Structure formats: structure tokens, C-alpha cells
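ok trying again, last paste got cut off:
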Amino acid sequence: MELVEEYLQIRKYSEQICEPLQTEDYVVQPVADVSPPKWHLGHTTWFFETFILKPFSVNYQVYNDDYNFVFNSYYETVGNRVIRTDRGNLSRPSVNEVYQYRAYVDEAMVKFLAAPLKDEVKELLILGFNHEQQHQELLLTDIKYILGNNPLFPVYSNEKKEVLSSEAEPGFINFTEGIYEIGYNGVGFSFDNELNRHKVYLHDFAISKTLVSNAEFLEFINAGGYLNFNYWHAEGWDWVKNNNITSPMYWHLIDGEWFNYTLNGLLPIDLNAPVSHISYYEAYAFASWKGLRLPTEFEWEVAAKSFNWGERWEWTESAYLPYPGFSKAPGAIGEYNGKFMVNQKVLRGASVATPKNHSRITYRNFFHPHLRWQYTGIRLVK
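nice, full thing came through this time. structure:
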């Protein structure tokens, strides 16, 4: 695919995600971890303007000098910015102005991509593609949080499904102890946190072919799983008590029946679907209740060719740390992953919110243990 075609295709998909929204939906920020859809659309545009057009496109005129402050996310190298918790306070620029900004930058990018590109620019462009795809996943899950915390439980779309049709036989797959290679190894794109490829030693283990279902998690709830401290880390138990957690996010007990808010609205829980929107704390507690455990990210990567994955981001038991030989790139691009390698857990796989061609076995996602607004699930190991 030509770079300009790929660029336009990716940019169009971000706007397609937002098509079902009302104007008011674009501005809401219910919690700090959720960014308004309008901000995602502006930030991904700012990325191409800041890292490609400004340094490499001759005579490029910045659309609006104030947008660097508004749409910079966490790049200290690039300057000051609106703090994350205040993104929902930005009534201006308006939604229409953000779309005009996107159109302006897209037009400039198409002209720029018509000329031969240096390898350095191509690498930044591919990073920009993957960056926008990351935000497309965040955009959809942020939209779900915005709508799912509206008391009317509005439907986002009747077409977008949260459960894939693939089914697998239950059971475990055995792996023998030995030395295995971990990390990206190929000629295509990868993030810096997937490098360098290195060897790890694993003991014997067996990993589940399937994700934990809603029915299985309901058994945990009915058995008093949220009431028994024995299954929880101390920090997780504090989280349960301080936040009055009694079920996965988006579950609602109505007249004795469990319902689940989905992109299709509030529906009775699909017992066969994989459980979703749970924290690492809950994943650990469920595994403990079953007398099992979560996989390490290395066990997951070794085993992933043997089972279906991609329906839920899967919590692992691994802390988010650099691989041997990891090094940050110079400048703002070096702030992309390395600065977050503390106090977070690794998730592996992908989810129903992940754009096509944006997942691979070596991909490392990472979140703090209490977060659960993403499509997170559980795979068990013994």
C-alpha cells in the first residue's frame, strides 16, 4: 500500500469511530484516564504536524500556535501542555474547528508525501500511523466509558460487536521447561519496548486455551470473591473496599438480574462471552480463588501461537520493565514508552477495540493495576 493511501485510510478510521457521536459527546471527560474524543482527534493531528510537517515540510505554516499547548500529551521536550485532568474543560477549540485542523494537516501531509521521503521521515511516519492506531483503541474505549456512565445508557452502535465468534475447546496446553526467545524479530514496525530480542528460562507450565467467561466470573462473585480478603493483594483489597467494588466495570444488578453495558446498550450479560473490563487486582483475585495464577508475559508470548487471542487484552503477572539492551531514542520520540516503565503491569494480545494490523504476539501494552476501562480479560496458568 502506498504511504499516502495508508495515511488517509488510518486518518479516516479515527473519524469513522466518532460518526455515531453527538456533538456533546466529543467534550466529556468523566475521569482523568478518559480523554474527550475531540482531544484524541486533535492530538493525533498534532503528532503529524509537530514531528513531520514542522521539521521536514518546507514553508509549512502551523495551523494554530496555541494547539501545541492544547494537544501535546506528555512530551516534555515539545513544551508545556494542558494537564491531562483538564482536557474536558476545553470547550474551545470547537469540534468543527478540530475537524478543520485535521483537514488542514491532512492536505499538507498529502502534498508532502507526494515527494520522495528520507528514511528518517518514513520511520516517523510509520510511528505516526501506529500512534494514531493506539489512539483509535483508546478513542473507542473512552467513548464507551463516556456513554456507559451516562444514566440513559445510550447505544453507540448496533453494528459494532464486543464478542468475536471464534470458539475454542476448553482445556490447557502444556509447555516444557527450557530456554525461549522473547521480543520482536522481523523487518516490519515494532515499538521500542518490544526490543531487544533475548532469551528467558521458563519452567514447565500449562496455559488455558480460552479466556475466563462471564459465567465463570459470576461464580467468583456468588462465592463471595469480593468479600474475602484471602484472594487479594493488600493493595487490591484496599482498592475493593475504598471504591466499593462488587463486580466488573459496566455490570449492573437490576431486580436480581445482571446486566452489562455494551456498545450496543444495556443488555443481559452474555454468560459465554469472555469477562471484560476488570483490573489486574480482580484478575489476580480470580486466579487465586481458582487455585491458579496469571501467566508471565514471557509464558504468554511463547504460548500465543497455540491459542486464539485478540478478543481481550490479557493481564499478565509481569511488571512493565525494559528488556536487556533497551535504549530510548533521542528527543521527544524517546519519551514514547521508556518513561512509563514503573508501577505498571504488562497486558498481552489485543482487543475488539484494536484496529486491524495493529496487533502482534510481541506487542506489550501496560496499565496501572487498578485500571479497567479497556477491554481487559483473564487467561489462567497452572
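cool. The CA atoms of residues 220 and 290 lie 9 Å apart. Residues 3-148 form one domain.
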